[in-house]
Amino acid sequence: MSTTETSASGVGPVEGASPYSVDNPAPVIEPPRKRTKKTPKSTRGNFEMAAWLFMRLSGVVLVVLVIGHLLIQLVLDGGVSKIGFAFVAGRWASPFWQVWDLAMLWLAMLHGANGLRTVINDYAERPNTRLWLKGLLYTATVFTILLGTLVIFTFDPNIR
Amino acid sequence: MPAGTLYRGREGMWSWVAHRVTGVLIFFFLFVHVLDTALVRVSPEAYDDVVATYKTPIVALLEYGLVAAILFHALNGLRVIAVDFWIKGARYQKQMLWTVVAVWIVLMLGAIYPVLGHAARELFGS
């Protein structure tokens, strides 16, 4: 038996017999940082955890959406050579493919934007650089999501 | 190069680097891709013109590279999820990476003909 062994009461042989028993229990000590009713509400929220979870959930969905997209556009039915305005018009005639492409656009853009946000946080050290890079990233992301959404919803097969 | 430590310079670090690099590349392509698709709102000719560049042999090679980046990012992403949520994930992260690499090689071999066949016919005649 080593001297670091402890008994069930948490008191090792060095301290001798435990002063506590069922009739004389040890006092309950509150964890120092335990949240109580008096603790102010955190103002930061759980954004980083939500972002972490979003990357995994959107990632799984994107694996299906993007690999399906690659199969349709680059592999099946002549690969890239068949793509043209008529091919796009044929696919977006179906609400199924509109929803598919819309979901892919939003998830991929948000997944990519959050990824790049992480990269900026990791490598850009000066506060000003971070601010400008993130400003550029968010502007480009919002613009691209809105443009893509507009194109899917207002697509007109008889444009002329 | 000095021998790796538990993490640095080993499978864990290099898969992280590759995940990052492929992710950034795919994201930049995504911007271009939404912009070129937006040309369907301009005119059928404008769209068909830009898609014609996607059918040239050099861009076909870039497409093959894009497929490579996407497939690695997708497969390694599933591995990351397994490391995070599967109780034995961290223990088998190395084996999972080599599985990812093996599946990736098989898929990339399978993608040669569909993605590059068109360019090969154009270059060498059909």
TrEMBL record, chain A:
<protein>
    <submittedName>
        <fullName>Succinate dehydrogenase / fumarate reductase membrane anchor subunit</fullName>
    </submittedName>
</protein>
<dbReference type="InterPro" id="IPR034804">
    <property type="entry name" value="SQR/QFR_C/D"/>
</dbReference>
<keyword id="KW-0472">Membrane</keyword>
<keyword id="KW-0349">Heme</keyword>
<keyword id="KW-0812">Transmembrane</keyword>
<feature type="region of interest" description="Disordered">
    <location>
        <begin position="1"/>
        <end position="42"/>
    </location>
</feature>
<feature type="transmembrane region" description="Helical">
    <location>
        <begin position="136"/>
        <end position="155"/>
    </location>
</feature>
<keyword id="KW-1133">Transmembrane helix</keyword>
<keyword id="KW-0408">Iron</keyword>
<feature type="transmembrane region" description="Helical">
    <location>
        <begin position="96"/>
        <end position="116"/>
    </location>
</feature>
<feature type="transmembrane region" description="Helical">
    <location>
        <begin position="53"/>
        <end position="76"/>
    </location>
</feature>
<keyword id="KW-0479">Metal-binding</keyword>
<dbReference type="Pfam" id="PF01127">
    <property type="entry name" value="Sdh_cyt"/>
</dbReference>
<dbReference type="InterPro" id="IPR000701">
    <property type="entry name" value="SuccDH_FuR_B_TM-su"/>
</dbReference>
From TrEMBL, chain B:
<keyword id="KW-0472">Membrane</keyword>
<keyword id="KW-0812">Transmembrane</keyword>
<dbReference type="InterPro" id="IPR014314">
    <property type="entry name" value="Succ_DH_cytb556"/>
</dbReference>
<dbReference type="GO" id="GO:0016020">
    <property type="term" value="C:membrane"/>
</dbReference>
<dbReference type="InterPro" id="IPR034804">
    <property type="entry name" value="SQR/QFR_C/D"/>
</dbReference>
<protein>
    <submittedName>
        <fullName>Succinate dehydrogenase, cytochrome b556 subunit</fullName>
    </submittedName>
</protein>
<dbReference type="GO" id="GO:0006099">
    <property type="term" value="P:tricarboxylic acid cycle"/>
</dbReference>
<keyword id="KW-0479">Metal-binding</keyword>
<dbReference type="GO" id="GO:0046872">
    <property type="term" value="F:metal ion binding"/>
</dbReference>
<dbReference type="GO" id="GO:0009055">
    <property type="term" value="F:electron transfer activity"/>
</dbReference>
<keyword id="KW-1133">Transmembrane helix</keyword>
<keyword id="KW-0349">Heme</keyword>
<keyword id="KW-0408">Iron</keyword>
<dbReference type="Pfam" id="PF01127">
    <property type="entry name" value="Sdh_cyt"/>
</dbReference>
<dbReference type="InterPro" id="IPR000701">
    <property type="entry name" value="SuccDH_FuR_B_TM-su"/>
</dbReference>
<feature type="transmembrane region" description="Helical">
    <location>
        <begin position="96"/>
        <end position="116"/>
    </location>
</feature>
<feature type="transmembrane region" description="Helical">
    <location>
        <begin position="54"/>
        <end position="75"/>
    </location>
</feature>
<comment type="similarity">
    <text>Belongs to the cytochrome b560 family.</text>
</comment>
<dbReference type="InterPro" id="IPR039023">
    <property type="entry name" value="SdhC_prok"/>
</dbReference>
<feature type="transmembrane region" description="Helical">
    <location>
        <begin position="21"/>
        <end position="42"/>
    </location>
</feature>
